[in-house]
Amino acid sequence: MDSNSKKSIANMSTEEYLNAIIDLSEEIVHDFKNTLATISGISQLTSYQQVPNEVKENMELIKEAALEGREQIDRFYQFIRGYNVDIYRYEAFSNIVFTCLDLINHKISKLEGEGIILSLNILSMSEVYCNEYKMRQAILNILINAIDAMEETGGVLELNLFDKSDTIILEIMDTGIGIPEENLDKIFEANYTTKGKKGTGLGLKVSRTVIEKCGGRIDVKSNLGKGTIFTIYLPIKIVERWIYPDIINW
Ligand SMILES: Nc1ncnc2c1ncn2[C@@H]1O[C@H](COP(=O)(O)OP(=O)(O)O)[C@@H](O)[C@H]1O
Ligand SMILES: [Mg+2]
Protein backbone atom coordinates (compact mmCIF):
# COMPACT_ATOMS: atom_id res chain seq x y z
CA MET A 1 0.00 0.00 0.00
CA ASP A 2 1.58 3.36 -0.97
CA SER A 3 1.25 6.37 1.29
CA ASN A 4 -1.43 7.98 -0.93
CA SER A 5 -3.78 5.06 -0.52
CA LYS A 6 -3.31 5.00 3.26
CA LYS A 7 -6.19 6.31 5.30
CA SER A 8 -5.49 9.65 6.92
CA ILE A 9 -5.23 9.57 10.70
CA ALA A 10 -8.30 11.79 11.06
CA ASN A 11 -10.46 9.12 9.38
CA MET A 12 -9.22 6.24 11.50
CA SER A 13 -11.11 4.63 14.36
CA THR A 14 -9.18 4.28 17.63
CA GLU A 15 -8.67 0.60 16.85
CA GLU A 16 -7.27 1.34 13.37
CA TYR A 17 -5.04 4.08 14.78
CA LEU A 18 -3.70 1.75 17.46
CA ASN A 19 -3.00 -0.93 14.88
CA ALA A 20 -1.23 1.56 12.59
CA ILE A 21 1.07 2.61 15.44
CA ILE A 22 1.78 -0.99 16.34
CA ASP A 23 2.58 -1.87 12.69
CA LEU A 24 4.95 1.07 12.48
CA SER A 25 6.61 0.14 15.80
CA GLU A 26 7.11 -3.44 14.62
CA GLU A 27 8.84 -2.14 11.45
CA ILE A 28 11.08 0.16 13.48
CA VAL A 29 11.97 -2.64 15.91
CA HIS A 30 12.88 -4.89 12.97
CA ASP A 31 15.08 -2.28 11.23
CA PHE A 32 16.69 -1.17 14.46
CA LYS A 33 17.60 -4.75 15.37
CA ASN A 34 19.34 -5.12 11.99
CA THR A 35 21.30 -1.91 12.57
CA LEU A 36 22.40 -3.11 16.01
CA ALA A 37 23.32 -6.54 14.62
CA THR A 38 25.60 -4.83 12.05
CA ILE A 39 27.26 -2.73 14.76
CA SER A 40 27.83 -5.65 17.14
CA GLY A 41 28.92 -7.94 14.28
CA ILE A 42 31.55 -5.57 12.91
CA SER A 43 32.87 -4.64 16.35
CA GLN A 44 33.21 -8.36 17.13
CA LEU A 45 35.26 -8.92 13.96
CA THR A 46 37.91 -6.55 15.29
CA SER A 47 38.78 -8.98 18.07
CA TYR A 48 40.23 -11.33 15.41
CA GLN A 49 42.19 -8.59 13.64
CA GLN A 50 45.67 -7.20 14.20
CA VAL A 51 44.78 -3.90 15.83
CA PRO A 52 46.15 -2.12 18.90
CA ASN A 53 44.68 -3.29 22.23
CA GLU A 54 43.17 0.12 22.85
CA VAL A 55 41.08 -0.21 19.67
CA LYS A 56 40.04 -3.72 20.68
CA GLU A 57 38.90 -2.47 24.09
CA ASN A 58 36.88 0.34 22.52
CA MET A 59 35.35 -2.08 20.05
CA GLU A 60 34.38 -4.37 22.93
CA LEU A 61 32.57 -1.43 24.58
CA ILE A 62 30.71 -0.69 21.31
CA LYS A 63 29.70 -4.35 21.04
CA GLU A 64 28.37 -4.41 24.62
CA ALA A 65 26.39 -1.21 24.05
CA ALA A 66 24.87 -2.68 20.87
CA LEU A 67 23.88 -5.89 22.70
CA GLU A 68 22.37 -3.85 25.51
CA GLY A 69 20.39 -1.85 22.94
CA ARG A 70 19.14 -5.13 21.50
CA GLU A 71 17.90 -6.26 24.91
CA GLN A 72 16.08 -2.95 25.38
CA ILE A 73 14.40 -3.16 21.99
CA ASP A 74 13.47 -6.80 22.68
CA ARG A 75 11.72 -5.71 25.87
CA PHE A 76 9.81 -3.09 23.92
CA TYR A 77 8.89 -5.69 21.30
CA GLN A 78 7.61 -8.06 24.00
CA PHE A 79 5.37 -5.25 25.18
CA ILE A 80 3.84 -4.41 21.80
CA ARG A 81 3.65 -7.98 20.47
CA GLY A 82 0.11 -9.20 20.48
CA TYR A 83 -1.18 -5.65 20.79
CA ASN A 84 -2.81 -5.83 17.36
CA VAL A 85 -6.44 -6.19 18.29
CA ASP A 86 -7.28 -7.92 14.98
CA ILE A 87 -4.82 -10.77 15.29
CA TYR A 88 -6.08 -14.08 16.64
CA ARG A 89 -3.73 -17.04 16.88
CA TYR A 90 -2.78 -19.93 19.12
CA GLU A 91 -0.94 -18.64 22.18
CA ALA A 92 0.54 -20.54 25.11
CA PHE A 93 -1.89 -19.49 27.80
CA SER A 94 0.76 -19.77 30.53
CA ASN A 95 2.84 -17.10 28.72
CA ILE A 96 -0.11 -14.72 28.79
CA VAL A 97 -0.56 -15.35 32.52
CA PHE A 98 3.15 -14.72 33.18
CA THR A 99 3.06 -11.47 31.16
CA CYS A 100 0.08 -10.30 33.24
CA LEU A 101 1.98 -11.07 36.44
CA ASP A 102 4.96 -9.11 35.10
CA LEU A 103 2.72 -6.16 34.34
CA ILE A 104 1.29 -6.04 37.89
CA ASN A 105 4.53 -7.06 39.59
CA HIS A 106 5.01 -3.59 41.04
CA LYS A 107 1.53 -3.75 42.60
CA ILE A 108 2.12 -7.21 44.06
CA SER A 109 5.58 -6.50 45.39
CA LYS A 110 4.35 -3.30 46.98
CA LEU A 111 1.51 -5.17 48.64
CA GLU A 112 3.63 -8.17 49.51
CA GLY A 113 5.30 -6.00 52.11
CA GLU A 114 1.85 -5.32 53.53
CA GLY A 115 0.91 -8.97 53.62
CA ILE A 116 -0.01 -10.27 50.16
CA ILE A 117 1.52 -13.58 49.22
CA LEU A 118 1.48 -14.86 45.65
CA SER A 119 1.02 -18.59 45.19
CA LEU A 120 1.53 -19.89 41.65
CA ASN A 121 0.76 -23.33 40.30
CA ILE A 122 1.27 -23.30 36.55
CA LEU A 123 0.80 -26.86 35.37
CA SER A 124 -0.24 -26.40 31.73
CA MET A 125 1.58 -25.37 28.57
CA SER A 126 -1.53 -25.67 26.40
CA GLU A 127 -2.35 -23.19 23.67
CA VAL A 128 -5.55 -21.22 23.31
CA TYR A 129 -6.89 -19.44 20.22
CA CYS A 130 -7.17 -15.78 21.19
CA ASN A 131 -5.95 -12.24 20.72
CA GLU A 132 -3.05 -11.98 23.13
CA TYR A 133 -3.66 -8.34 24.02
CA LYS A 134 -7.37 -8.75 24.74
CA MET A 135 -6.82 -11.93 26.75
CA ARG A 136 -4.16 -10.13 28.77
CA GLN A 137 -6.69 -7.40 29.55
CA ALA A 138 -9.29 -10.00 30.56
CA ILE A 139 -6.94 -11.63 33.07
CA LEU A 140 -5.45 -8.37 34.31
CA ASN A 141 -8.94 -7.08 35.21
CA ILE A 142 -9.54 -10.10 37.43
CA LEU A 143 -6.08 -9.97 39.01
CA ILE A 144 -6.39 -6.28 39.81
CA ASN A 145 -9.85 -6.83 41.34
CA ALA A 146 -8.35 -9.58 43.52
CA ILE A 147 -5.58 -7.26 44.69
CA ASP A 148 -8.11 -4.47 45.34
CA ALA A 149 -10.15 -6.91 47.44
CA MET A 150 -7.14 -7.58 49.67
CA GLU A 151 -6.06 -3.98 49.96
CA GLU A 152 -7.17 -3.74 53.59
CA THR A 153 -6.93 -7.35 54.66
CA GLY A 154 -3.79 -8.65 52.94
CA GLY A 155 -3.82 -12.38 52.26
CA VAL A 156 -3.04 -14.85 49.51
CA LEU A 157 -3.44 -14.43 45.76
CA GLU A 158 -3.41 -17.94 44.32
CA LEU A 159 -3.28 -18.85 40.63
CA ASN A 160 -3.81 -22.41 39.44
CA LEU A 161 -3.45 -23.24 35.75
CA PHE A 162 -4.13 -26.80 34.59
CA ASP A 163 -5.79 -28.88 31.87
CA LYS A 164 -8.89 -31.00 32.21
CA SER A 165 -9.41 -33.05 29.03
CA ASP A 166 -9.79 -30.47 26.21
CA THR A 167 -10.19 -27.45 28.48
CA ILE A 168 -7.60 -25.25 30.15
CA ILE A 169 -8.64 -23.93 33.53
CA LEU A 170 -7.31 -20.84 35.28
CA GLU A 171 -8.37 -20.28 38.88
CA ILE A 172 -7.71 -16.88 40.38
CA MET A 173 -8.32 -16.96 44.13
CA ASP A 174 -8.06 -14.24 46.70
CA THR A 175 -8.62 -14.15 50.44
CA GLY A 176 -10.09 -10.64 50.32
CA ILE A 177 -13.36 -9.05 51.35
CA GLY A 178 -15.58 -11.36 49.26
CA ILE A 179 -18.82 -10.57 47.41
CA PRO A 180 -22.31 -10.78 48.99
CA GLU A 181 -24.34 -13.56 47.34
CA GLU A 182 -27.05 -11.19 46.12
CA ASN A 183 -24.43 -9.24 44.14
CA LEU A 184 -22.79 -12.18 42.38
CA ASP A 185 -25.02 -11.77 39.30
CA LYS A 186 -24.44 -8.03 39.08
CA ILE A 187 -20.66 -7.95 38.98
CA PHE A 188 -20.51 -8.80 35.27
CA GLU A 189 -22.91 -5.99 34.37
CA ALA A 190 -21.54 -2.79 32.81
CA ASN A 191 -21.18 0.08 35.27
CA TYR A 192 -21.60 -2.07 38.38
CA THR A 193 -18.91 -1.05 40.84
CA THR A 194 -18.55 -0.79 44.60
CA LYS A 195 -15.38 1.28 44.30
CA GLY A 196 -16.98 4.68 43.90
CA LYS A 197 -15.03 7.06 41.71
CA LYS A 198 -12.04 4.69 41.62
CA GLY A 199 -14.04 2.03 39.75
CA THR A 200 -15.42 1.90 36.22
CA GLY A 201 -17.57 -1.18 36.58
CA LEU A 202 -16.42 -2.32 33.13
CA GLY A 203 -13.58 -4.70 33.98
CA LEU A 204 -15.50 -7.93 34.47
CA LYS A 205 -17.88 -7.26 31.59
CA VAL A 206 -14.87 -6.89 29.28
CA SER A 207 -13.26 -10.03 30.75
CA ARG A 208 -16.39 -12.09 30.20
CA THR A 209 -16.87 -10.83 26.60
CA VAL A 210 -13.25 -11.65 25.68
CA ILE A 211 -13.39 -15.11 27.22
CA GLU A 212 -16.73 -15.98 25.60
CA LYS A 213 -15.47 -14.76 22.21
CA CYS A 214 -12.73 -17.38 22.50
CA GLY A 215 -15.30 -20.11 23.16
CA GLY A 216 -14.79 -20.09 26.92
CA ARG A 217 -16.68 -19.14 30.05
CA ILE A 218 -16.01 -17.63 33.44
CA ASP A 219 -17.65 -18.27 36.78
CA VAL A 220 -17.30 -16.95 40.27
CA LYS A 221 -17.75 -18.26 43.80
CA SER A 222 -17.39 -16.12 46.86
CA ASN A 223 -17.55 -16.26 50.60
CA LEU A 224 -18.22 -12.93 52.26
CA GLY A 225 -15.29 -11.89 54.41
CA LYS A 226 -13.26 -14.93 53.33
CA GLY A 227 -12.47 -14.52 49.65
CA THR A 228 -13.39 -15.07 46.03
CA ILE A 229 -12.47 -17.45 43.25
CA PHE A 230 -12.86 -16.68 39.56
CA THR A 231 -12.52 -19.67 37.25
CA ILE A 232 -11.84 -19.30 33.52
CA TYR A 233 -12.45 -22.25 31.17
CA LEU A 234 -11.10 -22.13 27.61
CA PRO A 235 -10.92 -24.71 24.83
CA ILE A 236 -7.37 -25.82 24.10
CA LYS A 237 -5.68 -26.52 20.80
CA ILE A 238 -6.15 -30.08 19.68
CA VAL A 239 -2.78 -31.39 18.53
CA GLU A 240 -3.17 -33.80 15.64
CA ARG A 241 -0.94 -36.81 16.13
CA TRP A 242 0.57 -38.84 13.35
CA ILE A 243 -0.75 -42.37 13.64
CA TYR A 244 2.00 -44.84 12.73
CA PRO A 245 0.92 -47.64 10.38
CA ASP A 246 0.57 -50.96 12.10
CA ILE A 247 3.81 -52.65 11.02
CA ILE A 248 3.18 -55.82 13.01
CA ASN A 249 0.58 -57.10 10.53
CA TRP A 250 2.84 -56.91 7.46
N1 LIG B 1 -12.08 -10.46 43.74
C1 LIG B 1 -13.08 -9.68 44.13
N2 LIG B 1 -13.41 -9.56 45.45
C2 LIG B 1 -14.42 -8.77 45.84
N3 LIG B 1 -15.23 -8.07 45.00
C3 LIG B 1 -14.95 -8.16 43.69
C4 LIG B 1 -13.89 -8.96 43.18
N4 LIG B 1 -13.89 -8.85 41.83
C5 LIG B 1 -14.90 -8.03 41.51
N5 LIG B 1 -15.55 -7.61 42.62
C6 LIG B 1 -16.73 -6.72 42.67
O1 LIG B 1 -17.23 -6.56 41.33
C7 LIG B 1 -17.31 -5.19 41.01
C8 LIG B 1 -17.15 -5.00 39.52
O2 LIG B 1 -15.83 -5.27 39.10
P1 LIG B 1 -15.28 -4.65 37.76
O3 LIG B 1 -16.24 -4.95 36.67
O4 LIG B 1 -13.88 -5.10 37.57
O5 LIG B 1 -15.34 -3.09 38.02
P2 LIG B 1 -14.43 -2.18 38.98
O6 LIG B 1 -13.22 -2.94 39.37
O7 LIG B 1 -14.13 -0.97 38.18
O8 LIG B 1 -15.33 -1.86 40.17
C9 LIG B 1 -16.29 -4.52 41.88
O9 LIG B 1 -16.57 -3.14 42.12
C10 LIG B 1 -16.40 -5.34 43.17
O10 LIG B 1 -17.50 -4.92 43.94
MG1 LIG C 1 -12.06 -4.06 38.03
Description of the structure:
- The chain has two domains: 3-80; 89-235, Heat Shock Protein 90.
- The strands form two sheets. Strands 2-4-5-7-6 form a five-stranded mixed β-sheet.
- The protein has six helices and seven strands.
- The radius of gyration is 24 Å and the shape is elongated.
- It has helices at residues 14-45, 53-80, 93-103, 105-112, 132-149, 203-213; strands at residues 89-92, 116-122, 127-130, 155-164, 167-174, 217-223, 227-235.
- It is of the alpha+beta class and 250 residues long.
- The N and C termini lie far apart (57 Å).
- The structure holds adenosine-5'-diphosphate and magnesium ion (MG).
- Adenosine-5'-diphosphate is lined by residues 141, 145-146, 149, 174, 176-179, 187, 192-195, 199-205, 228.
In DSSP terms, counting alpha (H) and pi (I) runs of 4 or more, how many helices?
6
* CATH hierarchy: architecture of the largest domain: 2-Layer Sandwich
Named once each, the bound ligands are: adenosine-5'-diphosphate, magnesium ion
Strand order of the largest sheet: 2-4-5-7-6
Mean pLDDT across all residues, rounded? 85
Order of helices and strands: HHEHHEEHEEHEE
- The assigned structural class equals alpha+beta
Instruction: Tell me the helix content.
Output: 40-55%
Q: Give the overall silhouette.
A: elongated
Number of domains: 2
CATH superfamily of the largest domain: Histidine kinase-like ATPase, C-terminal domain
Poorly predicted runs = 1-5
| Total beta strands | 7
CATH class identity of the largest domain: Alpha Beta
Radius of gyration from the CA trace?
A: 24 Å
**Oligomeric state of the chains?**
single chain
Percent of residues in β-strands: 15-25%
Through-space gap between termini: 57 Å
The largest β sheet comes out as: 5 strands, mixed
The fold-level CATH name of the largest domain is Heat Shock Protein 90
